[in-house]
Each structure stands twice: as structure tokens, then as C-alpha cells.
Design goal:
CATH superfamily of the largest domain: Alkaline Phosphatase, subunit A
Oligomer: single chain
CATH class of the largest domain: Alpha Beta
CATH topology of the largest domain: Alkaline Phosphatase, subunit A
Distance between the termini: 23 Å
Number of helices: 15
Low-confidence stretches: 1-26
Strand content: 5-15%
CATH architecture of the largest domain: 3-Layer(aba) Sandwich
Structural class: alpha/beta
Strand order of the largest sheet: 7-6-5-4-8-1-9-10-2-11
Number of strands: 16
Mean pLDDT: 92
Largest sheet: 10 strands, mixed
Shape: globular
Length: 529
């Protein structure tokens, strides 16, 4: 194992300590007010950066999402504060870490009385709307119009709540959500006001149900296994203890659509029942298209009688095919929205943002889902197109707590001092960005839930990551991301890493103090015994 020299550790400690101080005083400074500009904030659920061709061309081509990057910027170091749906959305709305906005896990209920950027934009004269997935339990506040899915929502014939009234709509959720957004843009808003539209798709959340027109896509595509697919989790007890393995935890009926008519394929009883119930929600035309595809898949699966690694790899390929089919629909609908904006002359006065509420595992470490502070789930895609702004890649380390102050500064509104994030507008304009972060803070709380990912917090710099798992598992992990980008080798406690570890713990404590999460400081300062 390569040793980390003392000089590197000392330099890191000094530079990060300076950055932490700068973040506290620098990112609240407000530039000159900008002319009010519309905001279109498009967010999908669980869309991995690996499956956007602007980031990674191995799996799929996403020409419409890529249009945003081609005409704007691609953030190459974009991360979340808590990699799970509801909490991530709360961070986005408030610009604050989970403990400060009160929504730490999906069992919480969002306090709609608190300060959010839509409310502050309303006060600035904006008309605001949220359409699609909400997933924050309480009703939306701060919106002139809301039309949201119930909970996770259904892919087929979903029920929405439109300004408090339930409405079931026929069709495929991604198409329906886009239809509702375009209808609001065309007929539902006051065209004399700037608008902020949150267009939030359910897709590609589990169970990755494609639109009927996309069912045959990728049918013959063979996807190479990720190099970490058969990770043995050596030295990483939390990784070994999770329950989101494609091999062990991906359900044949619920996830992989093997609900056979003969009722011969059985899986987890609860998930199997849910998988069969999903099918029953379709109308006759949808079922006919579904059966034409999946009955053949089921027949071939039965005939193959797979076991062991052959079964694991079949599950991976089937997962990838369905997931990418769902992404194809997302991309097609993004194209519809961009075409509408162009046809109405709105491209020159609208900030367009595309992101996901977190990253996702496409078989890396043998997993699906998210939650961990490891790169695939901690990272999230972020593309922005600002009229008159710069184009190209932005390598600065940014986080989803930065969206709220960005929209506020764009609107010429003051950014409240209690917001944790920093406006990205200077970066979009090609100006100096005072925070110039070299460290990010992360905290995941939800346990045990169905995937058994231990609660943990940590810091990430450009080169290193320090993670502390707590609760029923008291463990530290340290990774050198430049030498070990797949995060396979935990070097915490290894000879030669002592000063580096102390430096990163100092930064961890500093960020916990800065963000007001003092209750974890004492435990972070004590080495595991």
C-alpha cells in the first residue's frame, strides 16, 4: 500500500481549513441583481450519471439531455448531501443539510412552513409550480400550482394530486408528467410573470417499467459487467452488510418482471405480490404490449434454468435493459420540453437545469440502489444552460444545497444567511467563485429499512474520502480516490496515513460545526476502539 507523506497531509490540512473558513464568509456575498429569468428545474429520480451520454457513452445515447450540456455546462464534480429521495429533495428546496431542514429520512414529513426557495421566488414576483414526483409526505407549499404523484407514483395510469384534489390519468407517467408541464407553460401560468417550474419525473425509480413503445429496445444488447461486480467487500463491513445486491436482493417478480401466468416463479412473498399487483393496474392495451414482450422473456428464462453466476449476470443484463428503456423515455420527453421552449422563444430567457435526486448503482459493487457515500450514489448528474452563460465543463465541487441560492441570486433575491449552499451563478457566468470548495459534507441517516445501509457521515476532497459508520457498526473508512477510484481498499488505520486522517477529521469537525450538527462531533473525534 502506498504511503501518504507527511508533507502532503500538512498541505491538505492547511488548504482545507482555509477553505472551510472561506465557505462560511464568502458564499453569502450577493452580486448585482440580475434581470428576472425563468427557471426550469428538471429532476429525475435515481438517474445515474453513467447513463447520460454527456457523461458516459458506454450504455446509452441521450441526445436531448445532452443538448443542455452542449449549449451550457456540465458539472463534473456534482454531489448530493444525503443520497435518498425525500431528504435529497428537502436539501434542494431549502439549500440546507438534512438535519437543518428536518427531513433526514423517508419516514419523515417535510415541514412545509419553513423557508424554501419557491416561497422566496414568489416574494420576488415569480409564478411557481411543481409537477410530477414530490415524495415529501406533506402537501407542497410555496407553489401557485402543484400537480404531484402520490408517494412514489405508478408508471402506468398514475394518480396525481392536483392542488389538493386526486386525479387519475391514463398513460405512461413520464409522458403524462411532461404533458402536464407543457399544459401549465402554455395555458396555466401568468405569462406576464417570470416562472419557476419544477418538473420532477418519477423515472427511472425502481421498478424500471418501460413505456410500451420502448419494450424491445436493448433486447439483444450485452452489457459488460462492471469491474467491481464481484466485489468481496474486504475491509468494508458496511458494504458487506447491505441488502441491495443484484444477486441476492433484486426480486425476480417485482424487479425483473417475471410474473408468469402459470404462477410457477416465486420470490419474496411481499415483493412478488406487489409485482403482480402492478401488472393488474394496466389497461388491456398496455397488458397486451407488456405480455408480447415479457412472456417471451419469461419463457426463455424458464428454459435456461440458470443458477450461480449465470443467474446473477442474467439479472444484471435484464436490469440494465429495463433501466435504459426507461431512460430512453425520459430523454424523449426532455426533447419535447426543449422543443416547446424553442418554439415559444423562451430559450433566451430561461435557465434550464437537469439533475437527479442522487446517483445510482448500475451493477458497480454488485449493486442497485444508492444511499452510500461511495461515488456512484454520492455523485449526481448536473447540467445547466444559462442564456449568455459559459459553455463547457465546470470541475468545481458542488452540491444539491447549492441549487436554492443559485435560483435566488439569478432572480435578484437576497440569499438568506442560514442557507448552507452557495450560489453557482458566478460559475455559470464565467466569474470567480469565492467558495472554491475543497471539501464536501455528507450524512445518511436511514436505518435499517429494506436495504440495511448503516448510517454514516463523512467528507470528500478532490483526492480523499473519509467516512464514519455509526450506530450498530462503529467503523471508519478512508480512500485515496486518485489511487483507488473504485473505493475497494480501505486505508484507514494503515501506516503512513495518520496525519492525513487527522487532517480530514479536523475538516469533518469543522464542517459539522459550520453546518450546526454538533451532536455528532464528539463521536467523530474518538477513534474506534
Amino acid at each position: 500500500m502506498k504511503k501518504i507523506g507527511n508533507s502532503v497531509s500538512n498541505i491538505l490540512c492547511c488548504s482545507l481549513a482555509g477553505t472551510a473558513m472561506l465557505s462560511m464568509v464568502g458564499c453569502k456575498e450577493k452580486t448585482e441583481p440580475q434581470k428576472p429569468m425563468n427557471v426550469l428545474f428538471i429532476m429525475c429520480d435515481d438517474h445515474s450519471y453513467q447513463t447520460i451520454s454527456a457523461y458516459d457513452s458506454r450504455y446509452i445515447n441521450t441526445p436531448n439531455i445532452d443538448r443542455i450540456a452542449a449549449d451550457g455546462v456540465r458539472f463534473t464534480n456534482s454531489f448530493v448531501a444525503n443520497s435518498i429521495s425525500g431528504p435529497s429533495r428537502a436539501c434542494m428546496l431549502t439549500g440546507k443539510h438534512s438535519h437543518a431542514n428536518g427531513f433526514t429520512n423517508n419516514k419523515s414529513s417535510f415541514d412545509g412552513a419553513q423557508q424554501t426557495f419557491p416561497k422566496l421566488l414568489q416574494a420576488q414576483g415569480y409564478e411557481t409550480a411543481v409537477i410530477g414526483k414530490w415524495h415529501l409526505t406533506s402537501d407542497p407549499t410555496g407553489f401557485d400550482h402543484w400537480d404531484i404523484l402520490i408517494g412514489q407514483g405508478d408508471y402506468y395510469n398514475p394518480t396525481f394530486i392536483r392542488n389538493g384534489e386526486k386525479v387519475q390519468r391514463e398513460g405512461y407517467a413520464t409522458n403524462v408528467t411532461t404533458d402536464l408541464a407543457l399544459e401549465w407553460l402554455e395555458n396555466g401560468r401568468d405569462s406576464q410573470k417570470p416562472f419557476c417550474l419544477l418538473l420532477h419525473h418519477k423515472a427511472p425509480h425502481r421498478t424500471w417499467m418501460p413505456d410500451t413503445c420502448d419494450l424491445e429496445l436493448f433486447a439483444d444488447t450485452e452489457f459488460p459487467l462492471p469491474e467491481t461486480f464481484y466485489d468481496n467487500y474486504e475491509g468494508r463491513d458496511a458494504a458487506a452488510g447491505q441488502r441491495m445486491s443484484i444477486s441476492k436482493d433484486m426480486d425476480l417478480v417485482y424487479d425483473l418482471k417475471l410474473a408468469d401466468k402459470e404462477n410457477e416463479i416465486h420470490s419474496n412473498p411481499g415483493l412478488e405480490a406487489a409485482g403482480r399487483a402492478i401488472y393488474n393496474k394496466m389497461d388491456s392495451a398496455q397488458k397486451a404490449a407488456w405480455d408480447a414482450h415479457y412472456d417471451r422473456v419469461i419463457s426463455e428464462f424458464k428454459a435456461a434454468n440458470l443458477t450461480g453466476k449465470a443467474l446473477d449476470e442474467w439479472k444484471y443484463r435484464q436490469y440494465m435493459r429495463d433501466y435504459l428503456r426507461v431512460i430512453t423515455s425520459v430523454d424523449r420527453n426532455i426533447g419535447r420540453v426543449l422543443d416547446y421552449l424553442e418554439s415559444k422563444g423562451l430559450m433566451d430567457n430561461t435557465l434550464i437545469v437537469y439533475t437527479s435526486d442522487q446517483g445510482f448503482y448500475m451493477g458497480e459493487h454488485g449493486w442497485f440502489d444508492k444511499r452510500f457515500m461511495y461515488e456512484e450514489s454520492f455523485r449526481t448528474p448536473l447540467l445547466m444552460r444559462l442564456p449568455g452563460g459559459v459553455k463547457g465543463d465546470i470541475p468545481a465541487m458542488v452540491q444539491n444545497i447549492d441549487y436554492a441560492p443559485t435560483f435566488l441570486e439569478l432572480a435578484g433575491a437576497s440569499v438568506p444567511q442560514d442557507i448552507h449552499g452557495c450560489s453557482l451563478l458566478p460559475l455559470l457566468q464565467g466569474k470567480e467563485w469565492q467558495p472554491n470548495r475543497e471539501a464536501l459534507y455528507y450524512h445518511y441517516y436511514e436505518f435499517p429499512d429494506e436495504h440495511a445501509v448503516r448510517p454514516h457521515y463523512g467528507v470528500r476532497t478532490e483526492k480523499y474520502k473519509l467516512i464514519r459508520f455509526y450506530g450498530d457498526m462503529d467503523k471508519w473508512e478512508l480512500f485515496d480516490l486518485s489511487e483507488d477510484p473504485n473505493e475497494l481498499h480501505n486505508i484507514y488505520g494503515k501506516q503512513g496515513t495518520e496525519q492525513l486522517t487527522d487532517s480530514l477529521k479536523t475538516i469533518l469537525l469543522g464542517l459539522q460545526k459550520q453546518y450546526g450538527e454538533e451532536e455528532y462531533i464528539e463521536s467523530a473525534a474518538v477513534d474506534e476502539k
